[in-house]
Amino acid sequence: MEVKNKIVIVTGAGSGIGKATAIHFAKFRATVVVSDRQEEAAKDVVASIVAGGGNAISIPADVTSFKAVENLVAQTVKEFGRLDVIVNNAGIGPNLLRTHQSTLKDWDKVIAVNQTGVFYCMKVALAQFLKQGGGNIVNIASLAGLKASPNNISYSASKFAVVGMTKSAAMEYATKNIRVNAVCPGYTESALLTQLINAKPEMDAILKSVIPMKRYGRAAEIADAVVWLASDNTQFMTGQTITLDGGTSL
Ligand code: NAP
Q1: With a 6 A CB cut-off, is 188 part of the ligand 1 pocket?
Q2: CB distance 159 to 93 below 8 Å
Q3: Within a 10 A sphere around the Cβ of 101, how many other Cβ atoms?
Q4: Nearest residue CA, atom 12 of ligand 1?
Q5: Do residues 242 and 184 make contact, with C-beta atoms less than 8 angstroms apart?
Q6: Per-residue pLDDT reduced to its tens digit, 184-218
Q7: The pTM of the whole model exceeds 0.70
Q8: How far is residue 239 from each of residues 6, 157, 219, measured CA to CA in Å?
Q9: How far apart are the CA of 175 and the centre of ligand 1, in A?
Q10: Domain ranges of the chain
């Protein structure tokens, strides 16, 4: 995949899909800015990339802070002179409550990370892309951004929003050498999924029963699609969502 020498930020890259994505970019010779609110986790990912001969640095950022996002992009540009790709992956999971039982606190927390955090990263990265004459955004949405997702209202709202922001921004910047796409993973092995199953162990069998492939996705399988969308192999593609869900949406 053609991402060699691209400067790539991955948010929430200390674990799960973000970590796998950072490692995958490095494998294809991109330079990766591994960003997470957990600095230690991000540093471990950088260490494993560098040990494998890749290029990576860590710049911590909590995506709910606009200042932190501005700093993330500014530091990246200061270090490498430009930013080619941002993968907006940082996200938190659902609470498994029905809508009338959801708390205002939960709503605010999920929207702050999954929706407003993606908006902040898009806004700041797009301003940089316009300055330098191009760039590429890959947002991590979800199957929950395409289909009904009961007992999951804040998560559902945030992921539908990510799909909407992807399509709207793709149109706005289509003539500016800027592409915006999203991936929509189904149930994928990660800390987020483990947390969900730990909260309700019966969910494991229920979830697998609705996946035609009868298994969860692997973070590396999602990373493959992210890197492809960010690469020069997909230059005529913008505003699209790619669903990777073992057939669940069928
Ligand atoms: P994960 O293993 O929990 O990874 C998410 C990472 O994002 C964690 O390192 C987390 O740090 C970080 N993060 C959370 N809030 C942040 C913030 N405010 N600022 C910066 N980093 C933050 O979960 P994952 O499954 O890989 O999730 C990655 C993305 O995929 C999310 O957007 C999620 O909604 C999406 N997704 C996942 C699945 C799935 O089944 N796993 C399915 C569809 C979509 P902490 O450890 O501190 O929270």
Answers
A1: yes
A2: no
A3: 11
A4: 12
A5: yes
A6: 999 999 988 898 888 889 989 999 999 999 999 99
A7: yes
A8: 21, 19, 23
A9: 31
A10: 7-244
